[in-house]
UniProtKB/TrEMBL annotation:
Classification via Gene3D superfamilies: Divalent-metal-dependent TIM barrel enzymes
Protein name (record): TIM barrel protein
InterPro entries named among the record's database cross-references: IolE/XylAMocC-like, Xyl_isomerase-like_sf, Xyl_isomerase-like_TIM-brl
Record field: transmembrane: none
Taxonomic lineage: Bacteria, Pseudomonadati, Pseudomonadota, Alphaproteobacteria, Rhodobacterales
Pfam families, per the entry: AP_endonuc_2 (PF01261)
Domain of life: Bacteria
Domain called Xylose isomerase-like TIM barrel: residue spans: 23-232
Amino acid sequence: MPLLSYQLYSSRNFAGLDRTCAMLADLGYQAVEPFGGLFDQPEALIGAVEANGLRVPSAHINLAELERDPSRFVDLAGRLGIQTYYAPFIAPDQRPTDAAGWKEFGARLSRAGAPLRAEGLGFGWHNHDFEFVAQDDGSIPMHSILEGGPDLEWEADLAWVVRGGADPFEWLDSYAPRITAAHIKDIAPQGEMLDEDGWSDPGTGTLDWAALCRALEGTRARLFVMEHDNPSDDARFAKAGATLHARIGG
């Protein structure tokens, strides 16, 4: 079973990195996945994870910041034990509108990751929903991104795949060798959990996580990263994530 990790973005609205890491360690989490803003104060991040015996095998970073100063992220990887970085987002006004543009974006990602790969680190893309929406030319951005960057890894956020109108099982089958981590999040039934943007705790929503985890066994995913984009109670969410991981074989 892949390592149980937690995307720290889920707790951004709750006080205290030390408190969050202590909570996760108590629940049996083995690792955390930082997001870009936490690297502004790396000593606080290092202190919190080390004090609670947590690992940091993966992290999200801003693409422009990586392009501007890749050596910074090589150094952070050494200090934190990061093995793989994922770029997680591109703003709407920067998104291409056809297959050629998205293919070039994949190539841009590949170029940005080259200094990391030269140091033995992995680099890839973390999806949202927009990558699965057909462009006017009929192309699907995610296909184009992975085609343009053939050495990119993929951290598959399957709930966003579903929100993008795609079949996650088809994508897991098609790109199994490229998938090195998965975000485990869930979608509430229609009209529910609106105060949490329609997300629900892992294992309590509409996704069949038992079946999805069986499908993930055919990929290279070595991390299951629990995430909720807007929980009203991060402790509740974190506990549900640990419970799901245990139930599916953790």
